[in-house]
Specification:
Layout (H helix, E strand, L loop, with lengths): L2 E5 L8 H5 L5 H9 L3 E11 L2 E10 L5 E10 L5 H9 L4 H7 L5 E11 L2 H6 L8 E10 L2 E9 L13
Antiparallel strand pairs: 1-5, 2-3, 3-4, 4-7, 5-6, 6-7
Length: about 170
């Protein structure tokens, strides 16, 4: 597990802050930022009871460049069968599935995160050296019932501070 610290919005440098500090759909936010569609690359999935867990990489469709690493727990019983089938197929980002399926929900950010990446995360994000990454933890609700827990971590940007070498 990476070392994770909860931080305030003011502690997050741009452009991370504008990408993370909002209650909007992260898929759409990232697609607007790169002016390209995001596609899903599942890294691992499993089910337990009514919950479906997946760890995914969102990448830019045209280049394959990583846009976000995500981990999610979704309550499958909160969705109609047609949406559940799309979620389980693991081909389309959850935000797009819900938007295109006209599924009404709210999203709330619980915490903003500073993340010291593990060697695995560095490999996933094509990182030649360790850099502090930023992300967020959020929850999705429908009719006051929690339907998902989500953690999203963004890859390094050219304007992100580098971790000091020791």
């Amino acid at each position: 597990m990476p070392r994770v610290t909860v931080v305030s919005a003011e502690q997050i440098p741009q452009p991370y802050r504008s990408l993370l500090v909002h209650d909007s759909d992260m898929t759409r936010t990232l697609e607007r930022h790169v002016s390209d569609r995001a596609v899903l690359r599942p890294l691992s999935t499993f089910s337990s009871g009514a919950s479906y867990f997946r760890r995914v990489l969102l990448v830019q469709e045209s280049s394959g460049r990583p846009l976000a690493l995500g981990a999610i727990r979704v309550r499958l019983d909160a969705f109609a069968q047609r949406l559940r089938t799309k979620i389980l197929a693991g081909q389309v980002p959850l935000g797009r599935i819900l938007r295109e399926g006209r599924f009404a929900y709210t999203s709330t950010v619980n915490a903003l995160l500073a993340v010291e990446p593990t060697p695995e995360i560095m490999g996933i994000f094509w990182m030649p050296e360790s850099t502090v990454l930023y992300g967020r933890r959020s929850e999705m609700f429908r009719d006051n019932t929690k339907i998902a827990d989500i953690v999203e971590v963004l890859p390094p940007t050219s304007r992100a501070p580098r971790k000091a070498r020791r």
